Amino acid sequence: MAGKGANSSNTKGKKKEVKKETGLGLSYKKDDNFGEWYSEVVVNGEMIEYYDISGCYILRPWAMSIWDIMQVAWVTKSGESDLEVPIAIRPTSETVMYPYFSKWIRGHRDLPLRLNQWCNVVRWEFSNPTPFIRSREFLWQEGHTAFATKEEADTEVLDILELYRHIYEEFLAVPVIKGKKSEHEKFAGGLYTTTVEAFIPNTGRGIQGATSHCLGQNFAKMFEINFENDKGEKAMVWQNSWAYTTRTIGVMIMVHGDDKGLVLPPKIASVQVIVIPVPYKDANTQGIFDACAATVKTLNESGIRAEVDSRDNYSPGWKYSHWEMKGVPLRIEIGPKDFANNQVRAVRRDNSAKIDIPMANLVEQVNDLLNNIQKSLFEVAKQKRDACIQVVNTWEEFAEALSQKKMILAPWCDDEV
């Protein structure tokens, strides 16, 4: 479970009302009412469920599967030996961790120290809750590191920032901009903060995607994290911290989702291909179902995450809409004609394009389609983002661009007045 957002004071104690219907379609269009569209998509797409406690949501398996795929940091070796079971290191927050840093770090040979955690966090102070984006409880990854020199810390800050760019752009297919926060917006107590920022064209809002902080020596001074350097001199460590959260999922939904529901990039979809039998009256139904099962087996053996929807209490059309709502990147249909011709019909979720694929070329062409979908989602999102960027040089131009939901590129001096 992951709690999401508290409601405003006039709705305190009440959960968000989401319209329940027997149909699969959405009541709101993305361009007409973005907020209601988003609320409907995350529920109908089976990403979350609202909970009776104010400001809390339940993360459903469809959302957790995405988060699991993005958890890429695991310990697999101990020295030169492989671990039988991979483990994740999960320390707690700074106030608990850093007093022990001062015990673990004695000399320069104890550095660098690098720790990583995957856990849930509760924050009671916030406003304007939005599922995944701003919430009372959320899941996150966070790293804490200590170095002997500032140069090492500076290098890691940018290495981690590049890792977060990689996650957004190459997994979530969401374009981001790397940069440095202003002094006013940097992490409290830190030396400086770097960030990757996403942009939602429909709202004209930027969203902080992940942060990589250089903490400097402020916490080292506070918690007495000292070491003896290679010259035998006493010194304080230089520290970093960095994190990203389940907000990444919300950004992905906002960028790629459409009026049919979720649109998931293949790299993070727990089901990359859904196979649906389409039997007609007097058709070889068993043969079609066997072909579907064989298709899934072939795809799974090649490393493609595929499932078959063989439920007989739903029509093929209903299944199409259901899996479109859930954002599965590729749908494969097998009907009597496909069965007779030893082929399948593939339908892309991102643009609804259809192609008939011979079974002999199944794995190769499905892989090509998934790669193309991943690339296309990023390119389309980047084109939409870039079309919103406007260069301004005066305050009047700034205000006008802001009113038009533009992403503004402007001179910045970082001086407070």
UniProtKB/TrEMBL annotation:
The keyword Protein biosynthesis applies. CDD domains: ProRS_anticodon_zinc (cd00862). Its EC number is 6.1.1.15. This is proline--tRNA ligase. It is an enzyme of class 6 (ligase). The keyword Nuclease does not apply. PANTHER family: BIFUNCTIONAL GLUTAMATE_PROLINE--TRNA LIGASE (PTHR43382:SF2), PROLYL-TRNA SYNTHETASE (PTHR43382). It catalyses: tRNA(Pro) + L-proline + ATP = L-prolyl-tRNA(Pro) + AMP + diphosphate. One of its GO terms (biological process) is translation. It comes from Abeliophyllum distichum. InterPro entries: aa-tRNA-synt_IIb (IPR002314), aa-tRNA-synth_II (IPR006195), aa-tRNA-synth_II/BPL/LPL (IPR045864), Anticodon-bd (IPR004154), Anticodon-bd_dom_sf (IPR036621), Pro-tRNA-ligase_IIa (IPR002316), Pro-tRNA-ligase_IIa_arc-type (IPR004499), Pro-tRNA_synth_II (IPR017449).
